[in-house]
Amino acid sequence: MAELKTKPTGESVEEFLAGVPEGRRGDCSELVALMRRATGAEPRMWGPAIIGFGSYRYRYASGREGDWFLTGFSPRKKDLSLYVMAGFDRFEELLGRLGRHGRGQSCLYVRSLADVDVEVLEELVGASVRHLAG
User: Fold this and answer.
1) Is the dihedral of CA 128, 22, 103, 98 positive or negative?
2) CATH number of the domain that 98 lies in?
3) Does 2 have pLDDT greater than 80?
4) 0.90 exceeded by the pTM?
5) Counting C-beta atoms within 10 Å of the first and last residue's C-beta, which end of the chain has fewer, N or C?
6) How many helices (H) and strands (E) are present in the chain, helices listed first?
């Protein structure tokens, strides 16, 4: 099996955030605080551009297993990519109240935190973390 390329690094979260464009840095600081509250964990760099919080062990039916962060985010050029690792199937009601967003299988895309209800976002992230850690 191929080794995962995205894994915890020893790189500084603070240095990474200092390199984020100024207009997006405030949202990143707010996400760090939100995800810290949701997980009780300190942020860590996962690969060169993802800030992850906590970890859990996964195992697929194929036998592949590994460790991954409970939640995290990456300040991409177009959107903030937020990782809601439990997926979205059980969170339709929260997503309906969230505000303007896009999503993939376990990624939530928002242009800025001004586009969403941050309290609903915190509820969503917390519910995902509790589901995985439970």
Assistant:
1) positive
2) 3.90.1150.200
3) no
4) yes
5) C
6) 4, 8
Band (29; pLDDT cuts 50, 70, 90): very high
Backbone torsions φ then ψ of 102, nearest 5 degrees: -125, 170
Give me the domain span that covers residue 22: 13-133
Rounded to whole angstroms, the Cα distance separating 8 from 77 reads 22
Q: Please, where are the H alpha helices in 1-134? A: 13-18, 22-39, 92-98, 118-133
Burial per residue of 2-37, b for 16 or more beta-carbon CB atoms within 10 angstroms, e otherwise: eeeeeeeeeeeeeebbeeeeeebeebbeebbebbee
Q: What digits encode the pLDDT tens for the residues 39-57?
A: 999 999 999 999 999 998 8
Q: Cα–Cα distance between 69 and 57 in angstroms, integer?
A: 9
